[in-house]
């Protein structure tokens, strides 16, 4: 059963026009960071999003977390359309869909002790009385591997990066969300502790039974952690598959290049690099059709029309005219 379905989610920003551009009757410029994104997350599933910087990963997360409104499209959570919500319904949604942020220092209030940071969401959402909060916060701290008697009364600046991110995870999980959106939660952490934090998240998602949308620009992280992975290029989804299939039989030319770039532990093994032409484009006035076409060695006339997501195997879809032809 899907806990979240996103249907044709689209976000465009107008860049406005200078007076000169208005007088010259130039059309306004548009940034189009997200175009017609559709997918769903099953209950308990960890779904990854991978793609280069600026491809719209955070835009998608912010729309789903309802920090911003889409230009068009729908968000359906647990069978209910939540694209437009009243204030009370939004508060209820916020308890069920929680975010873990990239920068654990920036996202924790420096004036609050760990106990109060973790208690912040339940207090704001009026979930429980203080006695219940006093019982649940230490329990949550212990679950994320922070001994409450040692950490509850500390301030964020007295913690290491990894400990701060564990507090961030505790804050996100204490309202018992059904979906957790983790936007590059380990990219600011020391490489040596990244795996611990990811293992913790994976372990907790199985124990506490929440689904997780996990963003990274590093495919090797996602294949280690996720059930399925979605590949984005410049605001469009290009391929969705199980982590295993994506790495072992990538179909889209962009996914193939991503997979070929992942380092292999065996130093004697030489993987054939896959070439991508040109530089990463920005989503300003992007061309219609497949946005990867200008960099694609398989591009053909048909690519000026947007390719549909098409099934190529069980749990494996690809949007590419050349591959699906
Ligand atoms: N509020 C906004 N106004 C105008 N443009 C925006 C706005 N928010 C995002 N963008 C643009 O949308 C594009 C996608 O941004 P987004 O932050 O979603 O990318 P990302 O995939 O999360 O990148 P990164 O890996 O660097 O975090 C970028 O080109 C960005 O400049
Ligand atoms: Mg981002």
Features:
325 residues, 8-stranded mixed beta sheet, 23% strand, ABC_transporter-like_ATP-bd, 4-stranded antiparallel beta sheet, Peptide/nickel transport system ATP-binding protein/oligopeptide transport system ATP-binding protein, alpha/beta, 2 domains, binds magnesium ion, Rossmann fold, 12 strands, binds adenosine-5'-triphosphate, ABC_transporter-like_CS
- H/E series: EHEEHEEHEHHHHEHEHEEHHEEH
What proportion strand? 15-25%
Count of helix runs: 12
Tell me the radius of gyration: 21 Å
Percent helix, as a range, is 25-40%
Q: What overall geometry do the principal axes of the alpha carbons give?
A: globular
Mean pLDDT across all amino acids: 90
The CATH architecture designation of the largest domain is 3-Layer(aba) Sandwich
Q: Could you say which structural class the secondary elements and strand pairing correspond to?
A: alpha/beta
CATH topology of the largest domain: Rossmann fold
Q: Within the largest sheet, what's the order of strands? A: 6-7-8-3-9-10-12-11
Number of DSSP strand runs: 12
Uncertain ranges: none
GO molecular function: ATP binding; ATP hydrolysis activity
Protein name: Peptide/nickel transport system ATP-binding protein/oligopeptide transport system ATP-binding protein
Domain ABC transporter: 4-259
Organism: Paralcaligenes ureilyticus
